[in-house]
Amino acid sequence: MVERLSPLEPDFHPGSHGNFEHGVDVILTETRPGSIVQLAAWPGEEKKLIAAIRAVTGLALPDGAGGGISSGGKSVFGFAPGKFTVADDAEGLAEAFAKAVGPAIGTVTDLSHGRTVIRIAGPKAEWVLAKFFAIDFALPAFPVGSGRSTAHHDVFAQIHRSGTDQFDIHVFRSFARSFWKALCHASEEVGYEVQ
Amino acid sequence: MLITCPYCGPRDVIEFTYQGDGNRERPEPASQNFEAWNAYVYDRLNPAGDHNEIWQHSGGCRSHLRVVRNTLTHEISSVAFARGDHGPRRKMEGKS
Ligand SMILES: [Zn+2]
User: The whole model's pTM is what?
Assistant: First the structure.
């Protein structure tokens, strides 16, 4: 298998940065999932697609807009009506979904090499992200497991809350380094560690 | 100005793209009715008040939306999926 190169590499500097004298308040990392796919159901076929997601990943999507769940290295969340992003630490999701989602149900798009997933975790993760995105990061409005589609200066972002203080941000690979640098600058104030 | 996307909830107008007057009726593509085409391209109601508009949540879920906006106050009195009801909706406090 060809080794995948990170687009962040020239600006990815492990270690502590910014105002970390009193400790680091966020940890930045790249999650590098083996597969990322986008699934879209034709209108009226959403339930069949959700059943296919369950059959392939074992994940049961909760009801509601932006609902999602993570377990066992896999995650899924809704990002638009009838549309879902699925990520897996392992490779091969697109092939599995191509078998499970027929053309009468919807579409499968392999984005494994097209997206970069940046994780921000820690007590100030909400604080730092609130500098970028005009959405409500409070837990009742943005529960663990769910996803949000939004944008920062035309850099489209899908944000998946993978923990109480942890967010996985899916950005276009070609914008990832620029977004990463901005995220590092925004994290200097609170002290950050790149892992 | 905030637009409450039926899927994403309230978002800043910067996430949306205006797609034009929602009152227009596009003639059939093969239509030779030039008056109808002229009306589709040029005629606008230009009301001082509630106006039917098409917006896209281009910086979010990318749904096309049917929005009623007051041209005097910018108050938005209704937002719906342009293609009719589909998919789950976000639960709004005090609103359905
Ligand atoms: Zn939306």
Answer: 0.91
